[in-house]
Amino acid sequence: MRSNKILAGTSVAILLTFGLACESRYYSTFAQSVQAAKTASVAVGPQFDTTHVYVTPQDFDRFVASLIATFGGTTTKQGVFNVTPTPSSTMSQLVMTPVGTVSVFGFKTPVPYPFGLERTGYLVIDMDEAIRAAKAAGADVLVAPFNDPIGRDAIIQWPGGVNTQLYWHTTAPSYAPLQTIPENRVYVSQDRVNAFVSSFLAFSHGTLVSDESHAPGVEIGRPTATYRRVRIESKFGKLTVLVTDGRLPYPYGRETTGYEVANLADTLTKAKASGVDVLVSPYKTDERDSAVVQFSGGYIAEIHSVIKK
Known about the structure:
alpha+beta; eight-stranded mixed β-sheet
């Protein structure tokens, strides 16, 4: 009897030690399924999800023109609206390119907090359900749902301090599918990455595509180092989590979106002809050819083409 108790205690100790040592570097598929099953999927599709770009009114038209010249695409009619729950006025236009959709804002008044700090807007099928799902997944609601000229909006914050705006439209929009799906590039600390990934997977009903513990540091401007990179895909699109200690050379950490193009060199030629600056010259990894650019108005983005294997 005594030996059985000792064996049982030893087994528990081993399991606890193993569990702590393996703490969520690789996420349990079962745990993700249990979390996701508590809420319904609220995603619509990646062509409806937008990168939010804030520029000054005087840079607005130049920025939109440079984006179209670089990637192609179309725009909605430009207008001036109040898109916040408190009084404000902004120029607003949607730019729909084959490689991603961009919401452009040019505020004529001071920008109310916390607007301007969100990197992405996700269209959802039901705002109330989306808020419930976000809370259940561990997100904070920074701005409670409010009405805008075409629907409802809210701003949430994921563990790790990543802000996202949620949209719901009174009249469901209809956009063509994208040629390639952009990646939302999120920089998160080593202490908060596990909480962020678990939270986002539960909310998005997404899939953990890869968790690379020794990704090439050239991707974050540190070619002699390695870092951890997590990739997720869901109906909201692609998301890449870059896990760092924050010691990043400029402009890394400033880019919010990575755009996949067929030919990087051709795209950069078009970009430079429209006044776009190349901040990081093209470099190659096993997966892609990449560069970092800055558009008129200050918007910084990563652009890449995938290396065929």
